[in-house]
Structure formats: structure tokens, C-alpha cells
Request: fold
Amino acid sequence: MGVRARWAPSSNSVRFLTLGDNALTVEFGQVVDDAINQGVHELARRLMAGGIAGLLELVPAYSSLAVHFDPLVTSHQTIAAVVAQELVTPFVLSEEGRPVIEIPMIYGGEFGPDLEFVASYNGLSPEEVIRLHSGSTYRVFMIGFAPGFPYLGPLPLQIVAPRLPAPRDAVPAGSVGIAGSQTGIYPLSIAGGVASHRTLPATTFRLAA
Amino acid sequence: MTASLEVIEPGLLTTVQDTGRRGYQRFGVPVSGAMDPLALRLANALVGNDLGEAALEMTIGGPSLRFQDERVVAVTGADLDPKLNGQSVPMWEAVLVRRGAVLHFGWRRSGCRAYLAVAGGFDVPIILGSKSTYLRGGFGGWKGRALQAGDVLPLGAAISDFGRHLGKCLSHEHVPKYEEAMVVRAVLGPQDDWFTPEAVSTFLRTRYLVSASSDRMGCRLEGRPLTLGDRREFVSDGVALGSVQVPAGGQPIILMADRQTVGGYPKIATVISADISLVAQSFPGVTHLEFVACTVEKARQVLATQQGLIERVRSM
Reply:
């Protein structure tokens, strides 16, 4: 799409939260929102490029950025001041040039044991679920839960589905799950409570050889 | 011919760990590393290694190891009753192990996790910048898994002046003591204001049992449940080592080395860096922990004191 948007969180919508003695959370709200999430990633890029002494790593989330640092080198106050300075000038956000990755899917059967459940829960046919799920482009809001696990959204409202009452012991790697209004891809076989479909072997996490 | 260490018996859960895998949390890769970073770094300081060098983390019941080469080693952390060729070995001290000797660890007598640092370290592949084992992901350390009988671990190149470190030891007053009930300091927040004032007060007054289901991901606590002020949906955000998450049941979990990189539950407090070692040395099903509120400034001072001790040991 490539719409350019100016994003300038007002000073009273940014909160600096103390996350223990060696991390700071820069919080723009408790919300799943495209523009805010783009702002989080842009802020992370700027801080990474900025070469802050004592900075260990940055972890973007939906509407916040966790900044991990060495408390014997720098402090919450110093980091907050650097962030506040970055936020003085409004960001110009754009999705131009962002890659769209196509993931081949096999829906249903042994590869998607919960396709029927998602369909009947929403009063749809399995074919309609497939059409809606595969017809959307999803944003990667953040990566977490497991290496390479992307938090994707938004899911078309017609195919939301609740978490399973109890998690499965091992959801096969490559499975695509639905939990509420979010969808994600399991990069590793891991316990999970989401209704799942399955992909062909396209992996989101591969260590360099 | 590379120097090596042969695993005769692997122990309950023995893994290769260094000070952790930094810089990839934004891709969902946990930091991992030694559960007790203080014991690890002191062990490395005693044998003259880089502080962040890989060591063996031995949990509750330790391994039996045959040294195929002479090395200076140090054992720190939990007391697993270490014996060299049947003779007791002093802990928190750089000792010489001769070629062919067998170093045997038994069951824990105090603490939970012991560390074996070998001069020259372990020559395992560096994955994403670290030699730490990420068990769930099956990568890092020794083949991404716990040690098994028959494994032969390659050691790093011997340090030429190893004799200089022989006999270095931590003075008795600095040796950490692991009790069956311990107090850990924590910085309150960031979501302490999501909880009722009574809940925060309960959190700071409860003697929690460290659950038997605790592991490298988290130290699960059992005690009076903590109630949220008003039920809100928590949007996942970043967590820190030592963050105390409170899921739906109200039973807190202290996030540890293999914690996930983001969390979907409110955090009432974060254990201070300097006290992570106490949480790591809690024996599941037995140890009790109590929390005390601490300021960031005090937390930093305590950490600086610990770092000072490590530096002094290193330059002995």
C-alpha cells in the first residue's frame, strides 16, 4: 500500500516504565494498532543506529519497546532521555518497500486438524474459512513466544476462534494457528493451545549453516 | 589431538552454558545462559578464563566426568559433593585435575545448580554469538541438548600459565550461602498498579514455596493468589530476567534464563540482577522465597559490589 503517515505520540501518551534494574519499557499504550506498531519498530531502528553506550538489545512488541542495558554503564534516566530526544521530531511512517512473503499452505485433514472447528464455530464452510484466511495480507507485529514465531494480524473477524481448552503437547513445526483474533506460525514443534492449520515446509527460523 | 572431557554419567540435567545469547530476543531467541550468573563468572575468574566462557551447569544430581587431559578447574554454586578420584574436592577454588582423573558429583546438599569451569573453556560451536544451550529450540551448547553418557566434549586450548591460578580461592565470607528460605529483592512494577494494594502487600509478605514444576524457563511460586484491580486484557510486551509474571491463577512466576522473549501477563515486580543467583539456587519443591521491595539505585549498588568481587578474584 505505501501510505505515508506522520506519527507523533504526544508526550503524555509515552510512558517510561522501569522493567527491573537493567531494562526500560517505552510504552505507547496497551493496544494492537498498526501505526503505533510501525512507530515502535522505527524507534527501535533509530536506537540501534544510535550507538548508545551500555545498550544490550531492543525488543519490539505490539505497542511498546523493551530496552535492555548494562546498569553499570548506563541508567534508565539516560536511556529515557535519548528516547525522548528521538521522539521530538515526528516520525514519517511508510510501508513502502516492505516485503510481502507468500506462505504456501495445506488446509485441513491431517495437516489442519482444527479447520472444521474454526468453520463450525463461525457458521462457515471450511472452504469459506480457507478463502478468508488465505485471502488476507497480515502484518508481522512482533516476533516472540519462540524463535521466529511471528505475531500476525489482523485476522478477518469472521474466522476468529478461541484458544483450545487445553494446549496440545506438541504442535508440529510449520503449523499456522488461530488464537482469538491473532494468527501465528509455529517455527518449532512446541506446546500450543491454538486451533491449527498447517503449512508446507516454509520455515520462519533457520540458523545459518 | 584436542583435549577433551568424557561423560561417564550425565547427571540429572547437565548443559553447557555461558553468560547467554544476546542480541536476538527481537527474533524470539531467548537469552538462555547460566541460571546463576554469579557462580558461573566466579568459576571462570578462579581459573583465569574470560568471565563469559562456557562452563557446565549441573542440576541437582551431578555427572561423572573423566578428564582426558590435565586441567585447572573450579567448582562453584550448589554443593553437589564433588569428589576427585574418590577424594572430596574444595569448592570455590582453582584445583588441578590430572589426566585420567574422574570428577564425580553426587546429589545436592545445598543450592540447586553447580558450575564446573575448566581453564580454556569448552570448544563447542558458537551459535548466534553464544555457547549457551537452548533446550527447547534444540540448538547451542553441546548439540542443543543435555549431556549423555558417552559424550566426549572438546576443551578449548589450554592456558599456558595455568599454574598462576592454581590455589586461587574465594574467601569464606564471600562464598554465597543457599538457605532453604531466602529473601530476594525486587523492583516493583511495571504493572504493580494493575494489582490491588492488598495484592501488592500480599506479594511482599508471603513466604512462597518454589514449586517442583520450576525449570530453566521460570521459577513457579505457590502461595496466596494475587488479584488484579480490574480484569483487563494484557497486550504482550517485553520481559526481563527476574520479571515476576502473574497469570490468570494469581500464582507468580519468576522468569529465568530460558524465558520467552515477550509475555502476555502483567508483571508485579522484577527481581534485582544481583539476587537472580538466589532464585537459581532454589531447590524446587523445597525452598521458600520472600520478596522485599528495592530501589533501582540500591539494586545497582549491590550489583556493582558483586562485580567488584568478581574483578578482584580475576586479578588475584
Summary: The helical segments of chain B are 37-47, 197-205, 276-280, 296-314. The interface with chain A takes residues 22-30, 127-128, 136-139, 186-187, 189-190, 232, 234-243, 260-262, 267, 270-273, 296, 299-300, 303-304, 307 of chain B (CB under 8 Å). Chain B has two domains: 4-174, 181-314.
